[in-house]
Design brief:
Blueprint lengths: L1 E5 L4 H8 L4 E7 L2 E7 L5 E8 L5 E3 L5 E6 H11 L3 E6 L3 E6 L3 E6 L17 E6 H12 L4 E7 L2 E7 L4 E7 L6 E6 H4 L8 E6 L5 E5 L2 E5 L5 H7 L11 H4 L2
Antiparallel strand pairs: 1-5, 1-7, 2-3, 2-6, 3-4, 4-17, 7-8, 8-9, 10-15, 11-12, 11-14, 12-13, 15-16, 16-17
């Protein structure tokens, strides 16, 4: 099987994946290349799906293949390619990664354990489509202030609020929204994301996971427990500061 694609078409997506997992199991079928993986703490689930149309060459068998990939190592190779064309010559136990037809890396597939929370039952109560620039600015401002951002939707308005010990920031965006909701999310996850699209689709609910969808990717992140609520529930629920997705879906 052989795939050929410009490195710039997959680099940002793989960099996002690499922020949360070190290795992943990729599924290769006649529709494209896809992986769904969770970070070790199971605070987030990340999906990357590169459709067949994005490849310059896409020669695959009808039978799907699972490929165990060291994401960090693959990223190191792709960064060496800059904006050149990458060829993946996929064999039984390994693949050759060829940069611009002259530089070759031979990579052996690895066994990857995948333990992913079942998020198929998530039902979001509020959603909106936001300019990427507005979202990134709100997250960046919040990161200067604290470690969690509150997102609130109401009356065709989106509010991003972060409170610190001596500083507070708020971003208000007037636009159409569906439903009303308020929830707190960890900035250390949100600030890692790189977006290669002009808009981001956002779905969430009251104290509920958030789903961000953008070009070829989506990510679901568990909410952060409010400090006051965490103190009240500490004896009953011995969890991490984030309500991990497994706890949310019980």
């Amino acid at each position: 099987m052989k795939l050929k694609i410009k490195s710039e078409k997959i680099l940002t997506e793989l960099e996002n994946l690499g922020q949360f997992v070190s290795e992943a199991k990729f599924s290769l079928n006649e529709n494209g290349l896809e992986t769904t993986a969770s970070d070790r703490n199971m605070v987030c689930v990340f999906n990357l799906s590169i459709p067949k149309k994005d490849f310059e060459v896409f020669e695959v068998d009808h039978k799907p293949r699972d490929l165990g990939i060291d994401v960090s190592l693959l990223l190191d190779i792709l960064k060496r390619a800059k904006k050149e064309v990458i060829t993946f010559d996929i064999q039984e136990k390994k693949m050759d990664i060829i940069i611009n037809s002259i530089r070759k890396f031979s990579y052996s597939f690895t066994e990857v354990e995948s333990d992913i929370p079942d998020i198929s039952s998530l039902k979001f109560t509020s959603s909106f489509r936001i300019k990427t620039e507005d979202f990134v600015n709100a997250i960046g401002d919040g990161d200067l202030v604290g470690d969690a951002v509150e997102i609130k939707t109401e009356d065709n308005k989106i509010l991003f609020t972060t409170k610190g010990e001596i500083l507070e920031t708020e971003t208000e965006i007037l636009q159409e929204v569906v439903g009303k909701a308020t929830a707190l999310y960890p900035l250390d996850y949100l600030k890692k994301l790189k977006f290669n699209s002009d808009f981001i689709n956002v779905e969430f609910g009251d104290d509920y996971p958030i789903r961000l969808s953008f070009r070829n990717c989506w990510i679901v992140i568990a909410p952060r427990i409010n400090e006051e609520e965490e103190s009240e529930e500490k004896e009953e629920i011995p969890t991490a500061p984030e309500n991990v997705l497994q706890e949310e879906l019980k």
